[in-house]
Amino acid sequence: MFRDRLAADAARIQDGFDRVLGALPDSDIARAMAHACDGGKRLRGFLVLESARLHGVEDRALNAAIAIEALHAYSLVHDDLPCMDDDDMRRGRPTVHVTWDEAVAVLAGDALQALAFELVTAPESGPAEIRATLASSLAQAAGARGMVLGQALDMAAETAAAPLTLEQITRLQAGKTGALFDWAACAGARLAGADIAPLRGYARALGLAFQIADDILDVEGDAARAGKRLQKDADAGKATFVSLLGLEGARARAAELVAEAEAALSPYGTDALCLREAARFVIARDS
Amino acid sequence: MFRDRLAADAARIQDGFDRVLGALPDSDIARAMAHACDGGKRLRGFLVLESARLHGVEDRALNAAIAIEALHAYSLVHDDLPCMDDDDMRRGRPTVHVTWDEAVAVLAGDALQALAFELVTAPESGPAEIRATLASSLAQAAGARGMVLGQALDMAAETAAAPLTLEQITRLQAGKTGALFDWAACAGARLAGADIAPLRGYARALGLAFQIADDILDVEGDAARAGKRLQKDADAGKATFVSLLGLEGARARAAELVAEAEAALSPYGTDALCLREAARFVIARDS
Description:
Chains A, B: Its EC number is 2.5.1.-. The structure is a homodimer of 287-residue chains. With 287 residues, chain A is an all-alpha fold.
């Protein structure tokens, strides 16, 4: 069930991107934005749409799903820059700064961030109170208390004298990948004006499990299948969940977190089966 | 009157930045954000506060004033990067990538954009309808139809086969500097839920006059007083309003635009004296 919905949601999100980005004035920036937003698993967008289905507000959720994927794409474009992670491949294709140049990559990322806020505040997302709440929470998730803080801690780790501790890596992850997962999973409740607490508990465990699975994939994965360079952290001598917990320890911790994520959904009963399946997917994926 | 209010508003905006940025987790990014937001004329923030005074909603306007200055600061930090304009000095001090490094500059700019949206959607800015409208219009002004489009046209001009025409430069300017001036001047009407048309007319003429004055300053100004490198456009062989209209022609056009800007304010009568004075200031400034 989960894989079918993920595929259907990914197709709807891609159609949305085609429409939204196709309406921009033609320029290298618009083309680079489309390049950056093409492909990927759309897991964050799926979380928006599935949490919205859970609350009966799927009809107003598409913009928020496109928005979180735009924000995620912007973070990848900037993260891939030579002055950051310096990556040439992403989602199986050359990165934006390789396809165009660094200036286009900086600007396309900047414009994608603005686009995310334009989308969540558009009338389609519902009453003004909800649109303002979506934008406010998205800004907090994206900024120097959320995703950018995580990125900064990650950059600082590269030059730190000692490898990070488990507590430090967990804090880094909570910003770098956790903040957007949190926003995505809570979006359905926010779109409905409902309590975000159960989805927040789910998202916290899911985001951490996702990062641990990423660290495992970085060690064990196949670069061609992942569509990006692997073994980066080991090459950089950076601590990861795998280096700190060992491969088996990391697998066990990820499985525990998936159980926690599933448990957090208990208020939703069987309505949340698809989200529970999504949690099991994040630690079983190969890309 | 204008200069006193500009100075008082600049001080309030700086206090606001100190409070908002002081509340962030301590990091190079937070310090770089503060560095980037320190100083400057605060003309965009003044336009927010003065247009709000005009509509009797100054009490809810401070966040929007800080937000537009944060967005402006982010655009300068990214614009100064080696892959963009490659500038070492800004507001009389070393730029962010010189003081820290390029990664910090990319991330601090990214976080400042998010901060701008966090500020305009915070409860202090008024009812939800107004906060959603502020965020939506700000996103449009900042993105690939507004400021980023202008930046991209500006980058493309550097490698274009022929110098830009007056029409092309005007379009570039409308994005690069005009979009934020437009948002800033209209913010007071938006905060009050009033008609933005007169302020929009004012802002369009003011923004263009500002850019022409910048081009004149680039040729005639004193780098120490301006706090940044000058004669960049001439060195790069780029067309400017001065190269297209001549120095006297550019001065005459700027004066015409100031008269247009003042005329657009006629619905406000004598209440708009300070905004009229601001329009005269933008073409008389020396930095």
